[in-house]
Amino acid sequence: MCTTSIKTVEEEGPLLSNRRRRCFIRCAGAVEQVFHVLYVVSGGGHRHLRETEVAVMAKLFESIGKLGLALAIGGGVVNSALFNVDAGHRAVIFDRFRGVQDAVVGEGTHFLIPWVQKPIIFDCRSRPRNVPVITGSKDLQNVNITLRILFRPVTTQLPRIFTSIGEDYDERVLPSITTEVLKAVVARFDAGELITQRELVSRQVSEDLTERASTFGLILDDVSLTHLTFGKEFTEAVEMKQVAQQEAERARFVVEKAEQQKQAAIISAEGDSQAALLIANSLMEAGDGLVELRKLEAAEDIAFQLSRSRNVTYLPSGQGTLLQLPQ
């Protein structure tokens, strides 16, 4: 059957190219020799393999190795022609002959020309960055400010960002524009105003910085002041001022307390004076009757207290103890 197949291929030779025909003939011959060798070996091993048969098997394995190598090379070429863009990312294609392409590649798997085109992947999700800045206030006080920024690139402007700035656009742009904007805004306020009007300062910095970043193709989702400190001299002066204010508050409290005590004493004295005056007037009007009434009330109270006491109190008769009741 193998011989017939070889003859058939030779008869249809004009329909195939010479290279394919020779390759097919060689493979068919090699397969025929392999089957022949296997047949001889399976017949009991009473016949030794000829040198030609060993050579045929060696050529067959060599062909298989070449085929595996070709498949590996082909797989590498196909793999180099594919690239993936993860979620939240975008890609810009750089062509060695035409430069950076204007189209932005979205998420998924895409094709490119191997060794001619190269993908540059950008992270388009919001990312935080802290930028420390040392600047001066309106009253020439040193101010240390740390600004936290949430930023992301405009996806449609990625080719321009890559061409004009580069992949590390955040390292090149954000520190520069943040320092510029902070110096301009902080210079409008005194050191004390930076503390008392911190929300206003943060809002102005956010507005100016967002507008400035948009010229570079960046979107700022959030801008906030996370750290605000002053120089050592100013900090000590503020602490001394706070101590003085606390001492003044304490002294004012002491004065107010003394004034209240004075007023309470005056009111108490006035009450005693008025009470004495009322008693004197009552005595003048009622004579000894009021005094006797008070004696009776006192005696009644003493008797009530003694009646509730466990101790027995003996009062000698006829001694006029405690008070003299009127006859």
UniProtKB/TrEMBL annotation:
Q: Which organism is it from?
A: Echeneis naucrates (Live sharksucker)
Q: Tell whether Chloroplast is among the UniProt keywords.
A: no
Instruction: Name its GO BP terms in alphabetical order.
Output: DNA biosynthetic process; mitochondrion organization
Quote the cellular component terms of the Gene Ontology held in the record: mitochondrial inner membrane
> By its UniProt entry, which Pfam families does this protein fall under?
Band_7 (PF01145)
- Name recorded for this polypeptide: Prohibitin
InterPro entries per the UniProt record, alphabetical: Band_7 (IPR001107), Band_7/SPFH_dom_sf (IPR036013), Prohibitin (IPR000163)
Q: Which residues form the Band domain?
A: 81-242
Regarding protein family, the annotation reads:
Belongs to the prohibitin family.
Q: Which UniProt keywords apply?
A: DNA synthesis, Membrane, Mitochondrion, Mitochondrion inner membrane
Role played: In the plasma membrane, cooperates with CD86 to mediate CD86-signaling in B lymphocytes that regulates the level of IgG1 produced through the activation of distal signaling intermediates. Upon CD40 engagement, required to activate NF-kappa-B signaling pathway via phospholipase C and protein kinase C activation.
Q: Subcellular location, in the record's words?
A: Mitochondrion inner membrane
